[in-house]
Amino acid sequence: MQHGTRRWPFEDKPLLIFWETTKACKLACKHCRASAILNPLPGELTTEEGKKLIEDIAEFGQPSPILVFTGGDPLMRKDIWELVDYALDHKIRVALAPAVTELLEKSLDDIEARKLSISISLDGSKPEIHDNIRGIPGHFQKTVNMLKQMVERGIRVQVNTAVMRDNARDLADIAKLLLDIGIKTWEVFYLIPVGRAQRELDLTPQEWEDVSNFLYDVSKYGIVVRTTEGPMFRRVALTRLILESKGIDYRKVLRLGDLYSYLSKRLVELLGSPRTRPMVSTTGTRDGKGIIFVAYDGTVYPSGFMPYPLGNVRTKSLVEIYRENPVLKKIRAAEFKGRCGVCEFRDICGGSRARAYVLKADPLGEDPACPYVPGEFTKIISRLGVDIEEYSKMIEGLRLVLPVKPSR
């Protein structure tokens, strides 16, 4: 990430801090990371403890990390606006990840007044897919209506979609729906089997490769595409960028599967030919590098999908945990094992640390969802005669993204 002329100092501070303010939520999503429940669990950080956390975050300095109030549903906390305002008063950039319920409807004026960035989950292009995943009949239409309201109000809203077996073949139709609504940013979550998410919902490595290539295609239709727990998307995007710059048909070079064939064909059927240059957005972050997660009870994890405890903000400053934890230092230094450890993309990708931990019990292990064989890309660019300096500049360019403006 670039701020002015400087890259984001990942060793010193995270770019994104996710605070799970509560486990409480009125939805019952089948893939929920938090295993959210209707009522809050005992042990939530109190209002005063939450303010102390915010004060700690301010100690990271300016420009501040972005504090994402998440859950469960953060709007289930009675003190949520007091906490949001306290963060804003400390010049911390704030975003909100609420569930689509009547609480959000009642909060639109508060959101608009504070100029907050909002992320809303949409997991299907039609009710039978989204409602099945979200566990609430009629929730699809409420979500679409809410997104339209936010766009009309000028609220900065991105859509989050968790990709799984239930909706993988629906991705092109979801992209069409988002563009019709006027959504500018799509954050795509590569499923991690944690919380309520079951292993049978997961895709194969080849299917994840297909999804990554499809998302690169989508980014040519005027929507910024980002991924969570899918850092291999950066490798795919860089490869596709270089092949395109040399006028080479990527289909003749890359191994693409049936899912990609279906999704790419469906995308053109729905939207026609690509409209823009690829709008790929990445900051080179990964779990523990630029990202940190604070659970409802103050326990700190590298991310919300990686249940590897690092400490607790009730007993230790978040600044100290982020900067000094030895595992986080190794993650930031790309000191990985297996294929991830020898991959030429170990810095800008590095694999999903959450998936390595959840599936292989090793936070520094290789990402089992990635089919890439280290060295293949280097062989490709050598055959193409790509200059190593040009290659390095492309990698650097992929890392950079405009800074998020403060909320107020």
Tell me the structural class.
alpha/beta
Strand fraction:
5-15%
Question: How many strand units?
Answer: 13
The percent range for helix content is 25-40%
Overall average residue pLDDT: 90
Model regions low in confidence, pLDDT < 50 over at least 5 residues: 1-5, 399-408
- Principal-axis shape: globular
- End-to-end Cα distance: 21 Å
| Radius of gyration, CA atoms, in whole angstroms | 20 Å
Task: Write the H/E string, N to C.
Answer: EEEHEHEHEHHEHEHEHHEEEEHHHHHH
Q: Quick one: biggest sheet?
A: 11 strands, mixed
Alpha plus pi helix count: 15
What does this protein structure show overall?
There is one protein chain. The chain is an alpha/beta fold and 408 residues long. Helix content is 39%, strand content 13%. The chain has 15 helices and 13 strands. The chain has helices spanning 47-58, 80-89, 102-114, 127-134, 139-153, 171-181, 205-218, 232-245, 258-271, 318-324, 326-332, 338-342, 353-360, 376-384, 388-399; strands at 2-3, 6-7, 16-20, 66-70, 93-96, 117-121, 156-163, 185-190, 224-228, 286-287, 290-294, 299-301, 311-312. It is globular. The two termini are 21 Å apart.
Summarize the topology:
Blueprint: E1 2-3, E2 6-7, E3 16-20, H1 47-58, E4 66-70, H2 80-89, E5 93-96, H3 102-114, E6 117-121, H4 127-134, H5 139-153, E7 156-163, H6 171-181, E8 185-190, H7 205-218, E9 224-228, H8 232-245, H9 258-271, E10 286-287, E11 290-294, E12 299-301, E13 311-312, H10 318-324, H11 326-332, H12 338-342, H13 353-360, H14 376-384, H15 388-399
Parallel strand pairs: 3-4, 3-11, 4-5, 5-6, 6-7, 7-8, 8-9, 10-11
Antiparallel strand pairs: 1-2, 11-12, 12-13
Helix pairs in contact: 1-2, 6-9, 7-8, 7-9, 8-15
